[in-house]
């Protein structure tokens, strides 16, 4: 972490700082062990008034906190509480069913995490023929809050679609589209590939960001504007991206990612 930067570490969220016999830990030690910065730099952050605990600025070095319950922020960014829960992100392959088991014997998310000891469940779902990011956890409150549409966590998709997607179609998407089960708000949309000016072009690559979670919403949305989806990938959920995660691979959420998602879910 650079001096005075907000926390932006990639430390796995499952790493547990060391506490005393009362379950407490000095705040600067908690920050350092969570990957915020060196112990000395964390002390400077506290003295500069950049660390909050439960909404109050803490500048006194040596202050002890309960890492399981304290809501800690560094320069406004959330540090997740200590927990025995696990928070994973998986790059779901195309053809895998978004359930933990399947009576028809199809390949499921449960098959991909069969070596994990926890009883995991998925946050939201992806269509069987859609690939990309899906979050798995054994934290029921987190899953329920994050999946609730009122919290409006942005999800980004990249779709290969039939036809030439023109600027007017992008504008139509951004203006909002009314489907049979209600309106859809698109936060961002752009064409990544396929050239509308090229004669004979028969496909386009489109990126969309929405916070909806309705059934097959992206496919229905693009079909509604005249561009049926050939292939669909979810590339981002809030701060969590698909970068360097191969199909079928998973990893733990980082401290920074989990903190931001907890804020989004109002936890």
From TrEMBL:
InterPro entries: PsdUridine_s_RsuA/RluB/E/F_cat, PsdUridine_synth_cat_dom_sf, PsdUridine_synth_RsuA/RluA, PsdUridine_synth_RsuA/RluB/E/F, PsdUridine_synth_RsuA/RluB_CS, RsuA_PseudoU_synthase, S4_RNA-bd, S4_RNA-bd_sf
Keywords from the named record: Isomerase, RNA-binding
EC number: 5.4.99.-
Keyword Nucleus listed: no
Domain RNA-binding S4 span(s) in chain numbering: 25-87
RNA-binding found in the keyword field: yes
Residue segments, region Disordered: 1-22
SMART domains for the chain: S4
Superkingdom as given in the UniProt entry: Bacteria
Enzyme class: isomerase
Family: Belongs to the pseudouridine synthase RsuA family.
PANTHER family assigned: PSEUDOURIDINE SYNTHASE FAMILY PROTEIN-RELATED, RNA-BINDING S4 DOMAIN-CONTAINING PROTEIN
The protein's name: Pseudouridine synthase
């Amino acid at each position: 972490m650079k001096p005075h930067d907000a926390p932006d570490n990639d430390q796995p969220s499952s790493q547990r700082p060391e506490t005393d016999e009362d379950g407490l830990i000095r705040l600067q030690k908690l920050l350092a062990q969570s990957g915020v910065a060196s112990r000395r730099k964390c002390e400077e952050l506290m003295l500069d008034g950049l660390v909050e605990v439960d909404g109050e600025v803490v500048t006194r070095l040596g202050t002890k906190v309960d890492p399981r319950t304290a809501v800690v922020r560094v320069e406004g960014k959330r540090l997740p509480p200590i927990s025995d829960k696990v928070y994973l992100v998986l790059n779901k392959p195309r053809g895998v069913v978004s359930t933990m088991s399947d009576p028809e014997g199809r390949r499921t998310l449960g098959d991909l995490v069969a070596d994990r000891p926890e009883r995991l469940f998925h946050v939201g779902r992806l269509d069987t023929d859609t690939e990309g990011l899906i979050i798995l956890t054994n934290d029921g409150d987190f899953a329920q809050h994050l999946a609730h549409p009122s919290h409006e966590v942005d999800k980004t998709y990249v779709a290969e679609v039939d036809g030439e997607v023109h600027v007017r179609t992008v504008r139509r998407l951004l203006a909002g589209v009314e489907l049979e089960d209600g309106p859809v708000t698109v936060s961002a949309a752009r064409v990544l590939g396929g050239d509308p000016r090229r004669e004979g072009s028969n496909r386009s690559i489109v990126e969309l960001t929405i916070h909806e979670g309705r059934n097959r919403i992206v496919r229905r949305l693009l079909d509604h504007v005249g561009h049926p989806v050939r292939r669909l990938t979810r590339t981002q959920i809030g701060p969590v991206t698909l970068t360097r995660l191969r199909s079928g691979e998973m990893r733990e959420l980082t401290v920074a990612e989990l903190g931001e998602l907890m804020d989004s879910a109002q936890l």
